[in-house]
Design a protein that fits this description.
4-stranded parallel β-sheet; YeaO-like; alpha/beta
């Protein structure tokens, strides 16, 4: 299960593994207050993309499309999160004010789609064993 949660909301036991998915540390948050499993800054949108979206130079649909392109180009950044989500709850922690249109929501959607794609018995990752793990229950 994949959840998204603002860094400014209190942690909860139901959060499972908490991963910060922003390039910048959330303002006003002490490092020990977020109770994170990991901070994956490389998984966040590029600085250029983040600034363009935050500054209003692009709409969410374009941001979403471009960020998905960045994710597709770097599976090594998001691949470990699939296994965490497969085993239990993964909470993507973000700082954006907008709780619906942000990078964590795009990433959650991406991970869910990739997890479904890779669970198919004929997925290339399962057949070839190229990444050394397979998320399918059939193995």
């Amino acid at each position: 299960m994949i959840r998204c949660k603002r860094a400014y909301q209190p942690t909860a036991q139901e959060d499972g593994q908490r991963v910060l998915v922003d390039r910048l540390w959330p303002r006003g948050c002490r490092k020990d207050s977020l109770a994170l499993h990991a901070w994956l800054a490389d998984l966040a949108p590029s600085a250029e993309l983040r600034k363009a979206f935050k500054g209003g130079a692009m709409q969410f649909d374009e941001f979403r499309q471009r960020y998905r392109g960045e994710l597709a180009a770097h599976p090594e950044h998001w691949w470990p999160l699939l296994e965490i989500a497969e085993r239990g709850t993964l909470t993507l922690v973000y700082a954006a004010r907008d709780e619906q249109q942000n990078n964590a929501r795009v990433l959650a959607e991406w991970l869910e789609q990739e997890g479904e794609r890779l669970e198919r018995p004929n997925s290339p990752a399962c057949m070839g064993g190229e990444l050394g793990i397979c998320l399918s229950d059939d193995d």
